[in-house]
Design brief:
The complex is a heterodimer of chains A (253) and B (556). By secondary structure, chain A is an alpha/beta fold. Chain A contains nine helices and nine strands. Chain B is mostly helical. Classes of the chains: A alpha/beta (253), B mainly alpha (556). Chains A and B meet through α2 and α3 of A and α1, α4 and α12 of B.
């Protein structure tokens, strides 16, 4: 479960001082304003919003790559800033522009990731076979990462992220650069993982994806959560029967 | 499986794969690199060996100087390693794209800091092998030392390297931490420079103990010799320890080794603890600083007026580069520190009473200053000018697709960096000449030389930067320490040797009356022509090749 309480982020505030955003002498740009949200276990939550709305900022705060100016986050009931190592063992993160070690082969990268999570060798080998087969990476086992296409890199990132069975998964733009086959594969996989109890928080610009897989949708605009609910709830509330119309009416485009 | 073993395996795989990549490279290219490397080390060895032989001809105290130089060498290496570490540690700790990957993993910040510390130690030090190997080889050969000398040198070098790199990493973490806290980064840099000045004044050696002794002339020329013998410095422990063990003084040698290992271990603990306490919050602040989009135009408004004479495309590129340079504190603070330190030394020349010593020594110091400044220019060329095209990164298409030519892009980079470099270096040499009270004749020659070095360094760095352009790499340290960056540094240093040394030699022969004034003049004219030819080759050739290479690569 993810609990976000009154989360705010102002660029220009001192990251090391949690409440320095209140200092009026500091020139700030508000990226996130008082976001409060709870995502229960097993929910697939889609976070939508126009460019610069605060989606990536939220995900970065949740994964520890940015510090909030105020507010708090609980991951499975625990404050990740108190024991970040324990929290990171149960989360997985797929950024929109993932970093990969160019001079490792796909197998070596997979093994390296597993070792960072202290997974034993036999388990890594077993999961390597399963994941590589699932993501169609079998024939690229000995290929250097630098020689992979963008789509294959994304597949490798997915394979290695699922390696330690995260309980909570954050994905920033999950379908960038993927072919239709892989898109279907990822969508089915995310649905299945959520059914099995994984909490998934994803941001996307692809509204059809949200319509297709999301249990609940949140729409953020200029750092503020302007809408939240299940798809039927949103349709009913706005009297519209497609997400695109709702999104455009809310974001003013 | 621990983080450490995962990292060690990753490094092992990386090197194995690097070998795989190299094995499919052109054999001719690999052969050329090998021959060049061996030739460079052999050439450096010969220069050092000849230097030792020359010093030995100075009757009475030649061997004393050679042994003192051994201690001095480690002090110099130590200082260079600290500077190098300051520069690379910033890139590896705060700008590396690997950090977010590691931060979201269950790894402690101490471990991340230590791992990146070792990476930056490796990146900042491996090029020094090209200086250490020939110097130590020449020293051992000249003194006919046993094979154990090499063993002890290697053994002492590891903790020495850790200590020096640790000081650099420590300073940069603290510097970045404080600079994120203070609003005016420029004022902070000035305070930082003042602190360096205080440390410098504290350690600054006193000269003139006995005017009667000739040996004190050497003390005047190389005042750092006294500093190098300061027993609190790790460089002193290293040199003394190696010499002690080589000469069979086991107890004394192991005492220094123990002291050094203990300090290195302490350094690792400090870096690790510092990482645990400060790294994460400092990294966050740096990231946030980069993401804060509110920027004031400051003096940039006036750029439009100042650069009125430039064509629109060139003006646009120059303005962009100036803005990026001044908006990146790492860039301008490093330049400020490098030139600031050297300027501080030049301004202090009269405090050593250098202007009162023999003309021969003053000329020698003037040329050593040109040499020293040229080394700094070569380093800055490799650090800032060489990677500037690569650092355009994926944004290069903006320039690449604009209605301008690659030739104009490269020449703009060349001339803008040359303008900045020549302005600062000539100013510094004028200060040096004034302080040393050298003749107009020597002044003109030193300005000619530093101008030539500036042109060659800018030409080489811009040209090679275009030939070895790497738009995917975002880490400047990795770009600089790659093959192209190293080749650039080596060629820049080679240029210095073939252009400055002959002129210095002729003036030395003239002042010691080994050749007549007329012969010296004739030789200087010939050498001047030689330098012009070498400057033209070192600038036009790489620039032309760079333009051709970029034209071929169009479309990335």
């Amino acid at each position: 479960m993810i609990e976000i309480n009154h989360l705010s982020k102002s660029y220009g505030a001192d990251a090391s001082k949690p409440n320095s955003y209140k200092d009026s002498s500091v020139k700030k740009a508000d990226a996130l304003k008082n976001l409060t949200l709870t995502i229960p276990k097993g929910e697939l939550f889609c976070f939508l919003g126009p460019n610069g709305a605060g989606k990536t900022t939220t995900i970065k705060i949740l994964t520890g790559l940015l510090q909030a100016s105020s507010g708090s986050v609980l991951i499975n009931g625990k404050d990740p800033s108190k024991d970040h190592i324990t929290s990171k063992r149960i989360i997985g993160y797929i950024p929109d522009m993932p970093y990969l070690y160019e001079r490792l082969t796909t197998t070596e990268f997979f093994e390296f990731t597993g070792e960072l999570y202290d997974i034993d060798r036999d388990a890594i080998n077993q999961r390597l076979e399963d994941s590589f087969s699932l993501f169609g990476l079998q024939e690229y086992k000995n290929v250097l990462v630098k020689d992979l296409s963008h789509g294959l890199r994304q597949r490798l990132i997915y394979a290695s992220t699922f390696l330690h069975d995260p309980q909570i998964l954050f994905i920033d733009e999950p379908l960038i650069g993927l072919d239709p086959y892989t898109i279907r594969l990822i969508k089915d996989l995310l649905k299945k993982k959520a059914e099995n109890g994984m909490t998934i928080f994803l941001t996307t610009h692809i509204l059809a994806l949200a319509e297709d897989i999301a249990h609940r949708i949140g729409i953020i605009l200029r750092g503020e959560l302007v809408e939240l609910g299940t798809l039927p709830e949103l349709y009913e509330k706005h009297g519209k029967n497609n997400l695109e119309d709702i999104f455009l009416s809310l974001t003013g485009n | 499986m621990s983080f450490e073993s995962a990292i060690i395996k990753k490094i092992k795989f990386t090197f194995v794969n690097l070998g795989r990549i190299l094995s499919i490279q052109s054999k001719l290219k690999v052969f050329f690199i090998l021959v060049f490397t061996i030739g460079l080390i052999a050439g450096m060895w010969l220069i050092f060996y000849s230097g030792f032989r020359y010093l030995d001809t100075i009757s009475g105290f030649g061997s004393i100087i050679i042994n003192k130089l051994f201690t001095f060498f480690f002090l110099g290496m130590g200082l260079m390693l600290i500077f190098s570490s300051i520069i690379t540690s910033y890139s590896t700790l705060f700008r590396s794209e690997e950090i977010p990957f590691l931060i979201v993993r269950p790894i402690s910040y101490n471990q991340i800091t230590l791992y990146k510390f070792f990476e930056s130690t490796l990146l900042s030090s491996w090029a020094f092998v090209f200086i250490i190997l020939p110097y130590m080889g020449a020293f051992a050969a000249y003194n006919k030392m046993s094979v154990f000398f090499a063993f002890w040198t290697m053994l002492f070098s590891i903790p020495f390297l850790i200590v020096c790199s640790g000081i650099g990493s420590f300073l940069i973490i603290i510097f970045v931490r404080i600079s994120q806290k203070v609003k005016n980064a420029f004022s902070f840099s000035l305070i930082f420079l003042c602190l360096i000045l205080v440390v410098y004044l504290y350690f600054s050696p006193s000269v003139y103990v006995d005017e009667e002794l000739e040996v004190f002339n050497i003390s005047r020329v190389l005042p750092g010799l006294n500093l190098a013998a300061n027993p609190i410095l790790p460089s002193f422990w290293t040199s003394e320890g190696i010499m002690a063990l080589t000469n069979g003084q086991v107890f004394r040698g192991f005492m220094f080794l123990f002291l050094l290992v203990l300090t290195a271990t302490g350094t690792l603990f400090i870096i690790s603890d510092l990482g645990g306490v400060l790294f994460y919050s400092t990294w966050l602040a740096v990231v946030e600083g980069r993401q804060n989009s509110q920027r004031k135009p400051l003096l940039f408004k006036k750029l439009e007026t100042i650069l009125f004479f430039l064509p629109h495309d060139i003006k646009a590129m120059v303005k962009k580069d100036i803005r990026i340079f001044f908006r990146d504190p790492v860039q301008w603070s490093q330049v400020l520190i490098f030139f600031g330190l050297i300027g501080l030394y030049f301004v202090n020349l009269r405090n050593f009473n250098y202007h009162e010593i023999d003309a021969m020594w003053r000329n020698l110091i003037a040329f050593l200053n040109v040499f020293c400044l040229s080394m700094v220019l070569s380093s800055l060329g490799s650090r800032f000018i060489y990677p500037q095209l690569s650092l355009e990164g994926q944004g290069f298409w903006v320039i690449g697709l604009s209605p301008t030519t690659m030739k104009r892009i490269i020449l703009t980079k060349f001339f803008s960096s040359l303008f900045a470099m020549i302005f600062i270096s000539v100013l510094l040499i004028l200060i040096s000449s004034f302080m040393l009270n050298v003749s107009i004749y020597v002044q003109a020659i030193t300005i000619f030389l530093i101008g030539s070095v500036s042109i060659a360094v800018c030409g080489l760095s811009t040209g090679l930067g275009a030939i070895f352009i790497d738009l995917k790499q975002r880490n400047p340290a990795a770009i600089v320490s790659g093959f192209g960056g190293t080749l650039n540094l080596i060629l820049s240093l080679c240029f210095m040797v073939v252009s400055i040394v002959p002129v210095g030699l002729i003036l030395h022969l003239e002042t010691t009356y080994k050749i007549t004034g007329q012969t010296a003049n004739n030789l200087l004219i010939l050498t001047g022509l030689w330098v012009v030819v070498v400057v033209l080759c070192s600038s036009i050739l790489p620039l032309t090749m760079g333009i051709r290479s970029l034209n071929k690569k169009k479309g990335f």
